[in-house]
C-alpha cells in the first residue's frame, strides 16, 4: 500500500505535522509539498492524505485549487483529511468543514484536527499584531495535538489494512 501526504504550510506547522504523521503510518509513505510539486502523479498512490492550515479563517488557496483540479481521481482513492489550526472545539470543526468539500469529508477514511502553532518570530509586523489581537499570544507558541495525529494514523492504518 502506497500513501502520499499532500500538504501546504505557511510557517512550517503543517509540514511538521505531515512528517510526524508519516512516521506513524504503516507502509510506503511519501510527503509532497504543494508549493514545490503540485503536479505529481496521483495514480501512483493507493491512499492520499491532504493537509493544510488555517490563516485568516480559511485554508490555503493552493490546497483548495489542487483539490478541485484533482477531484475526480481523489474520489476514486482512499483519502484522509487533516487541518492544523489554532482554535479547537466547534470553531476548529467549522474551519475543517469549510476547508474540505463535503464529498471529500464523507469519503475520507480519517479526519483530523491537529491543533496549531503561532510562530510569532516568523511573522511580519502586521501578522504579529493580528495574532496578538486575536489570541493574546506574543511569543512562539505551540499546541500541536500529538494524540490527534497518532489517532489519525491508527485509524488510517486500520482502514488501509482492510484492503
Question: Secondary-structure map with pairings?
Answer:
Elements: E1 2-7, H1 13-24, E2 28-33, E3 47-55, E4 58-59, H2 61-69, H3 71-74, E5 78-84, H4 89-99, H5 102-107, E6 110-113, E7 115-118, H6 125-135, E8 141-144, H7 146-161
Parallel strand pairs: 1-2, 1-3, 3-5, 5-6
Antiparallel strand pairs: 3-4, 7-8
Task: Give a nutshell description of this structure.
The chain has one domain: 3-Layer(aba) Sandwich (Rossmann fold), CATH 3.40.50.
Structural description of this entry:
The chain is of the alpha/beta class. The chain has a single domain, classed as Rossmann fold. The chain is built from 7 helices and 8 strands; from the N terminus they run βαβββααβααββαβα. It has helices at 13-24, 61-69, 71-74, 89-99, 102-107, 125-135, 146-161, and strands at residues 2-7, 28-33, 47-55, 58-59, 78-84, 110-113, 115-118, 141-144. Strands 1, 2, 3, 4, 5 and 6 form a 6-stranded mixed beta sheet that branches. Strand 1, helix 1 and strand 2 (28-33) form a beta-alpha-beta unit. The longest helix has 16 residues, at 146-161.
Amino acid at each position: 500500500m502506497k500513501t502520499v501526504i499532500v500538504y501546504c504550510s505557511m510557517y512550517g506547522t503543517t509540514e511538521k505535522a505531515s512528517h510526524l504523521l508519516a512516521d506513524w503510518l504503516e507502509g510506503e509513505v511519501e510527503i509532497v509539498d504543494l508549493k514545490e510539486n503540485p503536479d505529481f502523479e496521483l495514480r501512483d498512490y493507493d491512499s492520499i492524505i491532504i493537509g493544510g492550515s488555517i490563516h485568516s479563517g480559511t485554508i490555503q488557496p493552493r490546497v483548495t485549487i489542487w483539490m478541485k483540479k484533482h477531484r475526480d481521481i481523489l474520489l476514486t482513492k482512499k483519502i484522509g483529511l487533516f487541518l492544523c489550526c489554532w482554535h479547537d472545539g466547534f470553531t476548529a470543526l467549522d474551519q475543517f468543514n469549510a476547508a474540505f468539500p463535503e464529498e471529500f469529508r464523507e469519503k475520507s477514511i480519517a479526519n483530523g484536527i491537529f491543533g496549531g502553532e503561532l510562530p510569532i518570530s516568523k511573522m511580519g509586523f502586521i501578522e504579529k499584531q493580528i495574532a496578538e489581537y486575536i489570541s493574546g499570544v506574543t511569543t512562539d507558541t505551540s499546541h500541536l495535538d500529538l494524540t490527534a495525529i497518532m489517532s489519525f494514523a491508527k485509524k488510517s492504518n486500520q482502514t488501509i489494512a482492510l484492503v
